[in-house]
Design goal:
Helices cover about 75% and strands about 0% of the residues. The N and C termini lie far apart (about 155 Å). It is rod-shaped and about 155 Å long. By secondary structure, the protein is mainly α. It folds into two domains: about 80 residues; about 30 residues.
């Protein structure tokens, strides 16, 4: 091999190595570009999926609120329709309550009348010493009073 052939061979090898380096550099840049493009595409798809899920949730909430409002209106309509029935029931309950009170009052009056005519089954408690004139005789005043009692 002559020095000229050697130099030509050497230059050809240098050119080949430079070309190979450029190809590797281009390959790395294209790989980075593909990864970045893939990441951006994945993010865009993720955002679209989130947006679609959000729309579905909003639609579901709107349907639920419409359904709840409809149920509320139906319930209010039923309450308004049943007001007359409720008023009649309330009047009947009031009459029954008044009749029960009247019966209790009459029973209490009957018991009080029977207690005045017959001796009481519960002995009267002794009055305190400030009210009694003599220790043997109990006071005519009741133990508890409402307002002032005349002596």
């Amino acid at each position: 091999m002559t020095p000229e052939e050697y130099e030509r061979f050497k230059e050809a090898e240098k050119a080949h190595l430079r070309k190979l380096r450029e190809l590797k550099k281009t390959h790395q840049q294209l790989g980075r570009k593909a990864r970045i493009t893939g990441a951006v595409t994945d993010m865009a798809e993720g955002i679209n999926n989130l947006f679609n899920e959000h729309e579905e949730m909003v639609d579901r909430l709107q349907r639920d609120s419409i359904e709840s409002e409809a149920r509320m209106e139906v319930a209010l309509d039923n309450i308004e329709a049943d007001d007359a029935t409720l008023e009649a029931l309330d009047a009947a309950e009031l009459e029954a309550d008044q009749a029960l009170r009247k019966a209790r009052a009459q029973e209490l009056i009957r018991q009080m009348k029977s207690a005045d005519g017959a001796p009481s089954q519960n002995p009267a408690p002794k009055a305190d010493s400030a009210r009694s004139e003599t220790p043997d005789k109990p006071s005519d005043l009741p133990e508890k009073t409402i307002g002032r009692m005349r002596r």
